[in-house]
Amino acid sequence: MIFLSFMNLFRNYRRTLAILLTVALGTGVLFSFKGFINGVLEQYRETTIHSMYGHGQVNAKGYRESVYAEPWKHWMDDTARIEMYLLKQPSVEYIFPRVSFSALLKNRNVSVGGSGQGIDAKAESQFFDSLNITEGETLKNQADGILLGSGLAKALDVSPGDKITLIVNSVDGKINQTDLKVVGIFNTGVIDFDNHVFRIQLREAQSLLATDRIEFIAIGLKSYKDWDLFASNVEAAFPDLDATSFAVLDKVYYQNSVDWLNAQFHVIQLIILAIVLLGIFNSIAAAILERKQEIGNFRANGESVFDIMKLIIMEGVFLGILGSLLGMGLAYGILKFFLDNQVLLPPGPGTTLPFYVSFEFTWTMVYTTLILSTIAAIIASVLGGLRVARMPIAEALRS
Amino acid sequence: MDQKKQDKHEYLYQLRNIAFQYSLGSCKIDAIRDVSVDIKKNTLLTLSGPSGSGKSTLLNILGLIEPPQQGEALFLNEDISAMSAKQLNTIRKYQIGFIFQQFHLIPVFNAEENVAYFLARQGHTEEEINKRTRSSLEVVGLWDHRKKRPGELSGGQRQRLAIARALAKTPEVIIGDEPTASLDQQTGREIMGIFHELVKQKKVSIILSTHDAMVQSYADCNIHLHDGALK
Asked: Closest approach of chain A CAs to the CA of B200, in angstroms?
């Protein structure tokens, strides 16, 4: 029966080709669109990771979800031991200890409140290459340098090279201040962030705050896929620490955008599958109607309705699989040829830099597309074949 | 009692007052009316009569394709009307061979595969399938043409192939709906010669519908139908 189903594909070459092209077109579009979405999501993920959050962060347990009057009391101490452990993890490439604090920034007569981040600037500049520096340069090893958000810089009316005074309340209640030189201005596109955030060297920040504690450690991994294992290892080794991925840290922009794009893809996927299904149904129904007498003969010779449906469904499976492979092969070839140099897309949600995407192939796409197209072909075969398969034998033979 | 039972098993079919109507819009048309007939095993029987006389309907009933709407029809002493769809399928699969005027061969299979297909569906071993296929193709003289597809065979050869296909099942009965109607007289005679030999040598029963006096001349018995009734 399987052999007959396969051979039936050669009964009418033109019709088989038409069905295969229908399946191939739908599958090709589905495959291309999924590949494009994958490309967008991958680039967006990498942009998000390399602009602000890293692959995630490690902080004291419950710290991120809580609001404290004196947050530094809940920062991590004994960080040398933690950092040593983190650096020994095979998946870890970088660690970025950070502190954040409130401060007053003063330029001549203008004073503005800001939210400071003390960072290991030299290390971070190697990893966080997606931060959009609109003026000057990023903070690297300039000991007295400060990197300002664009809104903050505008409020202070400063440009790279200008000096400002930073006034900070230390953890023991004293007021410390220092003069810093603006090295650059960044723009993340998140207005609240750009209006308040500035970055200085970690040691400078700890000195102003009069603490050697670390608020959290941002992590740069070799691959984002390593996060889950890394996080579980850290939380097992340090039960008083939390490890949180960038997708959770940036849920509002990153994760919601990913969910939104995926939902959009599923709607389009349904539309394409419906078109494929209708196309196959139309062709298969016509093909089956032409074979009414032959099917009547099969039934007369003892084949049940179920046997006939198996025969028809197997033809649908062959058409679905062959059409899908044809469609994916063609789509892959065309996309690799035309998108080899990538396509420039405007900035994604929460980012300010345009980014290049290319068609991103995964085997999951192949399995998913193959299964969905084959299911569509099977449904079309059932719909197209059931009426004839159930037709009274005498009527089928007479027709 | 034993004698009566013995007698019953002599018959392939026993039909008692069977009737069948077709609906045509709001009208009911009698295709078969009050037909009673017993058909013995190992017989070449023809059903004759003008178009619309009920030959095909009677063949459908004998082929277990449609049950009679009235009366009693027994196949090998079993009531057809009481059989389930599964039972009917099984009997048609193993005990009845069909030959149609339009052959209904599988165009994508060659002659050998056409014969082998229904044998495979019967669940025979490959060795048995090959043996039966060769034997039946040799009976109809098509073994040398076994690799040809139906489209490469003449009308007579296609009908021989249809006969081989029916014969290979080793059925109790082969039912043919005007199997020589689309063939020339000479080829028709050859086909009837094959049927005649099958009845004699293979002990199979053959029931054919026909308009053709030549076909009737080969029959052991002829049933003539007129307006759905025996005449």
From this structure: 24
Q: Which tokens go with A324?
A: 């899908």
Tell me whether residues A297 and B92 touch, CB distance under 8 A.
no
**Interface-testing mutation among B65, B86, B112, with chain A (most A C-beta atoms within 10 A):** B65
Say which residue, A130 or A197, is predicted with more confidence.
A197
Q: Which residues contact A216 (CB under 8 A, 6 or more apart)?
A: A57, A58, A59, A63, A64, A76, A97, A98
What pLDDT shows up at residue A145? 95
Residue A350 has pLDDT above 80, yes or no: no
Mean pLDDT, residues B131-154 taken together: 90
- If one counts every other C-beta atom within 10 angstroms of the C-beta of residue A217, the result is 24
Taking the Cβ of residue B98 and every Cβ of chain A, the question of whether any pair is shorter than 8 Å is answered with yes
Return the DSSP state at A225: G
Q: What are the pLDDT digits (tens) for B11-68? A: 889 999 999 888 877 788 888 888 899 998 889 999 998 888 888 889 899 999 888 8
Q: Give the nearest chain B residue to A12 (CA atoms).
A: B108
Residues 6 or more apart in contact with residue A387 via CB below 8 angstroms: none
Which of B108, B114, B159, B173 to mutate to test binding with chain A, by most A CBs within 10 Å of its CB?
A: B108
Nearest CA in chain A to B22: A395
d(CA A272, CA A267): 9
Which residues in chain A are closer than 8 Å to B85, comparing Cβ atoms?
304
Task: Give the Å distances, CA to CA, from A255 to A84, A171, A192, A250.
Answer: 31, 35, 19, 7
Task: State how far the Cα of B81 lies from the Cα of A385, in Å rounded to an integer.
Answer: 27
Interface residues from chain A to B (CB-CB < 8 Å): 1, 4, 7-8, 10-11, 293-294, 296-297, 300-304, 307, 392-394, 397-398
Contact between B92 and A300 using a beta-carbon 8 Å cutoff: yes
Closest to A323 measured CA to CA, from A11, A25, A14: A25
Report the distance separating Cα A140 and Cα B204, nearest Å.
99
Best mutation site among B57, B75, B98 for testing chain A: the one with the most A CBs within 10 Å?
B98
- Residue of B91, B93, B108 with shortest CB distance to A11: B108
CA distance A291 to A295: 6
Q: What is the ipTM of this complex?
A: 0.86
E-strand stretches of chain A: 56-60, 92-107, 110-119, 133-136, 145-149, 163-169, 175-186, 197-201, 216-221, 241-245, 343-345, 355-357
The HSE-up count of residue A349 (CA atoms within 13 Å, CB side) is: 13
Domain boundaries, chain A: 2-48+254-398, 62-239
Is A392 within 8 Å of B66 when comparing Cβ atoms?
yes
Alpha carbon distance A144, B108 (integer Å): 84
Residue in chain B closest to A295 (alpha carbons) equals B104
- Domain ranges in chain B are 41-64+84-230
* Domain B41-64+84-230 sits in CATH 3.40.50.300: yes
**Calpha distance A185→A193 (Å, rounded):** 12
pTM above 0.80, yes or no: no
